[in-house]
Specification:
single chain; alpha/beta; Rossmann fold; OB fold (Dihydrolipoamide Acetyltransferase, E2P); 15 strands
């Protein structure tokens, strides 16, 4: 079993202890160090190779967001914070997941499984149907790395497109057509002039709607026949 070397960076000792306990219960995680001072963690990262960082957002000296932009791109990051208002800020960097405190072990385990999966498939590092795409956000050179498997659905908003991930939303200046051309046709399908969905995240379907989690999306008449033909090919 491939182990992921990880560190914890959080200025709250209680939060560090909780993460230490969670990490100790996961066989493929190997904790290297814990830090309550982010600048000490940065010095450690400069001379040590780490696979995964559990990173708090609001800390003294330097925020987790600022620190994440310094950490090598080969290191995965899972943000852990009690401040949900920082969620949108975290999207400006390539994050594996985002945990809102307090989080249970089950949610923690889901996040580290995602990290393990990404680590086990290092070849999935190109913009192809098995990897990820970069989505431009505000600013000339601001991009988000988005793993294709994490996309729930995409919504067209006139001159913008909303990419909905689990608990996250990224809005970019683009069109549905442009984004659709970058996605694998076997995994996504357009069901309405304003919606493209991922087959793997569909929870329920009726004649007029598709449910992805609690979100109900309409099936447009123009796309109905093609959509149900695709669904019929996947039925048991």
């Amino acid at each position: 079993m491939q182990q992921l070397k990880c560190i914890i960076i959080d200025d709250e000792p209680a939060a560090v202890r909780l993460l230490e306990r969670y990490v100790s219960n996961v066989a493929f995680l190997r904790l290297q160090e814990t830090f309550t001072k982010p600048l000490e963690a940065l010095a450690f990262l400069e001379s040590n190779t780490i696979d995964l960082v559990f990173l708090d957002v609001q800390m003294p000296q330097i925020t987790g967001i600022q620190l994440s932009k310094i950490i090598t791109p080969n290191t995965q990051i899972i943000f852990t914070t009690a401040y949900s208002e920082f969620a949108l800020d975290s999207y400006d960097v390539a994050t594996t997941d985002y945990l809102l405190k307090p989080f249970a072990f089950e949610r923690f385990y889901k996040a580290v499984l995602k990290a393990q999966k990404h680590a086990l498939h290092p070849s999935k590092t190109e913009d192809n149907e098995e990897g990820y795409i970069f989505i431009k956000t505000d600013g000339k050179h601001n991009f988000n790395r988005v793993f294709i498997e994490d996309i729930l659905f995409i919504e067209g908003l006139k001159n913008y497109v909303s990419v909905q991930l689990s608990g996250q939303q990224i809005i970019t200046y683009s069109t549905l057509k442009h984004l659709s051309d970058r996605l694998p046709k076997t995994q996504f399908i357009q069901i309405h002039k304003s919606y493209i969905i991922a087959f793997s995240h569909i929870d329920k379907i009726d004649n007029d709607s598709v449910w992805i989690g609690a979100k109900q999306l309409p099936i447009g008449n123009t796309y109905r026949k093609k959509f149900f033909e695709a669904i019929n090919k996947r039925q048991l």
